[in-house]
Amino acid sequence: DWWADDAGKMLKNADEEDLYLFAHSHRFRDAMKDFRLVGGAIPMLPRNNLGVWFTRWYDWSAQDAYHLVAEYEHHGFPLDVLILDMNWHKKNSWTGYSFDGNLWPLAKETLGRIKALGVTMAGNLHDDAGVNDWEVAYPAMCKAVGCDPAKKVIATDFTSKQYMFALEDVVLKPLEETAFDFFWIDWQQGENAHGTGQDARWKMNPTIITDKLRATDAIRRCRQQGVCTNKRGVTFARFGGLGNHRYQHGFSGDVLGLTWANMAYQTYFSATAANVAYGYWSHDIMGPAHDPELTVRWVQVGAFSGVMRSHDRGLSAGACAGWGLDAGNCAVVDVTRLPWAWREAAREALVMREELLPYLYTGNRLAFETGLSFL
Q1: pLDDT at 6
Q2: What is the dihedral of CA 267, 272, 273, 276, to 10 degrees?
Q3: What is the pLDDT of residues 321-375, one digit of tens each?
Q4: Residues 237 and 211: beta-carbon distance below 8 Å
Q5: Which of 196, 245, 257, 263 could join 277 in a cystine, given CB atoms 3.0 to 4.6 angstroms apart?
Q6: Cα-to-chain-centroid distance, residue 6
Q7: What are the C-alpha distances in Å from 278 to residues 42, 122, 241, 299?
């Protein structure tokens, strides 16, 4: 079950094209049901993942993360999923698989306290620069792939079973056991990196292979290693093309600008993607500091979307950290810091999202059975 031979050469279908004709006229539900039979089912997601998410791109410390959880609880905001953006790991490279000890000196203990509150944890990954010698798991990874320990880096190779399975089982599995319930695959791979640019006519897409790999790790480990769990495998990642609906949730990328038009576009985006069964899109939910109404409206839109995730790509940090209504181009992502009236409106929207969890979970089951997403 791989897309390359032992030499890393891309495997190709014997036939150049597979053609499927969907002739359903206006019977759209039937069309989606048949698409599901051809392309696979929308996955059942963990119940928590249908709740309220929070993440931000910022050099968060363990104290900052725990403070946010406490503030959400203090102000009566629900919080189900907390994602650490790429700042959680060492800063030697954009790619990292080891906690930054300066920000997270006791990562296992801190995240254990947060998870004990019922919060699901995830971590951001950029699978680009390989496994370097500054990583905690480097010696074990080097042994797993049979490399010279004197090497400085084990290069990424998306076509190598040995490398990819070792990355999952030697480097990432310890993080799953101590810190993260799933991963946010964030690197924009393209189609010509790390062994994949072999033939311009036959595209190899690293996005869908990493999505599949991490969504099915538990199944593979059960078959190969006899280590079986009932954990549902999910990913949070970019779109890898038709068929990627089998591995959700989707990350639509950083929002370009904090405008009413961009907020409205997110709903159109999700509804259109649902036409190919990919309806569980997670968009950046935040707003400009100078327009708290837009911030609240964006939260309300998110509360009735496939995934509700507050996220900031850095617009609330630096000079914007001291938030205020005159903050110009700064953003608001932590809605507990909104002025009282707007904060209460945002809280009511997120509480309603939480109250709808039984309905949302049932809807997820119906999506699994029919191919019809929420939007």
Answers
A1: 81
A2: 150
A3: 654 445 566 778 889 988 899 999 999 999 999 999 999 999 999 999 999 998 7
A4: yes
A5: 245
A6: 30
A7: 8, 21, 10, 21
Residue labelled with tokens 């203990």 = 109
Count CA atoms closer than 13 A to 92's CA, side-chain side.
17
Nearest Cα to Cα of residue 169 among 108, 115, 225, 111: 225
| pLDDT at position 270 over 90 | yes
Sign of the alpha-carbon dihedral angle for 130, 136, 140, 146: positive
Distance CA 258, CA 262 (A): 7
Are 323 and 317 in contact by the 8 Å Cβ rule? The answer is: no
Interhelix angle for 340-355 vs 357-370, to 10°? Answer: 50
Compute the distance between CA of residue 27 and CA of residue 50 in angstroms, rounded to an integer.
28
pTM: 0.92
Tokens representing residue 32 in the block: 């989606």
